[in-house]
Design goal:
By secondary structure, the chain is mainly alpha-helical. The protein has ten helices and no strands. It has two domains: 45 residues, Orthogonal Bundle (Arc Repressor Mutant, subunit A), CATH 1.10.10; 122 residues. It starts with a helix and ends in an 8-residue tail after the last helix. This is TetR/AcrR family transcriptional regulator.
Length: 186
């Protein structure tokens, strides 16, 4: 089987999510992929270069559907937002690895570092647009700053242990829409 960059990126992603920057080694990665370390070095001379390339691909893929999503003006905007935040949770954890990349590598690839920063800013802009749509649909209070809604949603998704569990996602949605208090009409 021929190893692709996508295979390397997926295995890198998995190892980083398991144990972070220090957990990822070319030895573990080669074992995960069933290849030799020299085969990996042909693609990426250093772990830091690999992480940069993988993160660039992750952010590009993550942002791909955002313009169409915003243009579609979804009616169940809260579900859309929660799903995007659930998807972003892993990327956010992966982004933490960037802080461990050595100075020389950052200087060697300023375009990639800048592109990642711009992608993160683009995500914030897309979120603002989705939150503004949610406010227009009376899902969120117009008086709440978007930044606080983002912080609240980011923390809310961390309560979901099993991201495939629709029941847990629905509980978070109910908490977001109705709060903790019992309402008279219930």
């Amino acid at each position: 089987m021929k190893m692709t960059k996508e295979d390397i990126h997926q295995a890198t992603r998995n190892l980083l999510l398991i144990g972070g920057y220090d957990y990822l080694t070319f030895a573990k990665l080669s074992q995960e992929l069933g290849v030799t370390r020299p085969a990996l070095y042909k693609h990426y001379p250093t772990k830091d270069e690999l992480i940069l390339a993988m993160m660039s691909a992750e952010m590009t893929s993550f942002l791909e559907d955002m313009p169409a999503l915003i243009a579609s003006k979804p009616t169940d905007i809260l579900t859309v937002l929660l799903n995007k935040f659930l998807e972003f949770a892993d990327i956010h954890r992966l982004l933490e690895s960037l802080y461990r990349i050595d100075y020389e590598t950052r200087q060697k690839f300023p375009d990639r570092m800048l592109a990642l920063k711009q992608a993160h800013e683009m995500f914030k802009d897309y979120l603002d647009q989705l939150i503004d749509q949610a406010k227009a649909q009376n899902v969120f209070n117009n008086e709440l700053p978007n930044e606080w809604i983002v912080k609240f949603l980011m923390n809310a998704i961390h309560m979901i242990e099993d991201r495939q569990n629709i029941e847990e996602i629905d509980i978070v949605k109910k908490l977001l829409l109705h709060g903790l208090a019992k309402h008279e009409d219930e």
